């Protein structure tokens, strides 16, 4: 239900329900406008035709078209700033496949160069076309008081989380030339 608000000071608006659908809970109504005070407006009066709302039986559902977002897979420590350093990633998984862990090791990450200007490190964000995977278990390594690297741990507690992470890593490795080497 919507009526023009700019005429509210000059007129009163009455809403009169016309049809209440019991199944959907939708109320279709019309707006009536009644003049209550004289106006200094000197323009020509206009008459707008009443819009007829289609009945619920004539409404047709729109066919949905899937939209594919092409996002370059990236890792970020500060949201909006891609990490340029390619990490060493170690994966572990339980024998039954119910959970797993990924350990990211970054040597001399580029976030140290810009973290003072851009913002604070709030976690590790793994971004691709499916969305964002976030881990807040991020630790910095220091040598002689200077930042040397970052170690981030991402824990996957379900097979679904593991599969989602592996889809991200497949995209990220294709983009950055990484390859999987199985431990012997």
Automatic annotation (TrEMBL):
<keyword id="KW-0793">Thylakoid</keyword>
<keyword id="KW-0602">Photosynthesis</keyword>
<comment type="similarity">
    <text>Belongs to the Psb28 family.</text>
</comment>
<dbReference type="InterPro" id="IPR038676">
    <property type="entry name" value="Psb28_c1_sf"/>
</dbReference>
<protein>
    <recommendedName>
        <fullName>Photosystem II reaction center Psb28 protein</fullName>
    </recommendedName>
</protein>
<dbReference type="GO" id="GO:0015979">
    <property type="term" value="P:photosynthesis"/>
</dbReference>
<keyword id="KW-0150">Chloroplast</keyword>
<keyword id="KW-0934">Plastid</keyword>
<keyword id="KW-0472">Membrane</keyword>
<dbReference type="GO" id="GO:0009535">
    <property type="term" value="C:chloroplast thylakoid membrane"/>
</dbReference>
<keyword id="KW-0604">Photosystem II</keyword>
<dbReference type="InterPro" id="IPR005610">
    <property type="entry name" value="PSII_Psb28_class-1"/>
</dbReference>
<dbReference type="GO" id="GO:0009654">
    <property type="term" value="C:photosystem II oxygen evolving complex"/>
</dbReference>
<comment type="subunit">
    <text>Part of the photosystem II complex.</text>
</comment>
<dbReference type="Pfam" id="PF03912">
    <property type="entry name" value="Psb28"/>
</dbReference>
């Amino acid at each position: 239900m919507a009526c023009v608000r700019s005429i509210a000071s000059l007129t009163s608006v009455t809403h009169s329900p016309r049809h209440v659908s019991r199944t959907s809970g939708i109320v279709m109504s019309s707006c009536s406008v009644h003049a209550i005070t004289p106006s200094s407006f000197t323009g020509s009066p206009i008459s707008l035709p009443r819009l007829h709302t289609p009945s619920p039986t004539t409404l047709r559902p729109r066919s949905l078209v899937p939209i594919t977002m092409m996002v370059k897979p990236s890792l970020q420590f500060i949201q909006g700033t891609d990490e340029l350093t390619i990490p060493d990633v170690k994966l572990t998984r339980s024998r039954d496949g119910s959970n797993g862990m990924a350990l990211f090791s970054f040597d001399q990450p580029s976030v140290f160069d810009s973290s003072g200007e851009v913002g604070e490190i709030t976690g590790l964000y793994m971004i691709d076309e499916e969305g964002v995977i976030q881990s807040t278990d991020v630790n910095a390594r220091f040598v002689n008081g200077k930042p040397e690297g970052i170690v981030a741990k991402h824990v996957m507690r379900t097979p679904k989380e593991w599969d989602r992470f592996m889809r991200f890593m497949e995209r990220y490795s294709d983009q950055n030339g990484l390859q999987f080497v199985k431990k012997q």
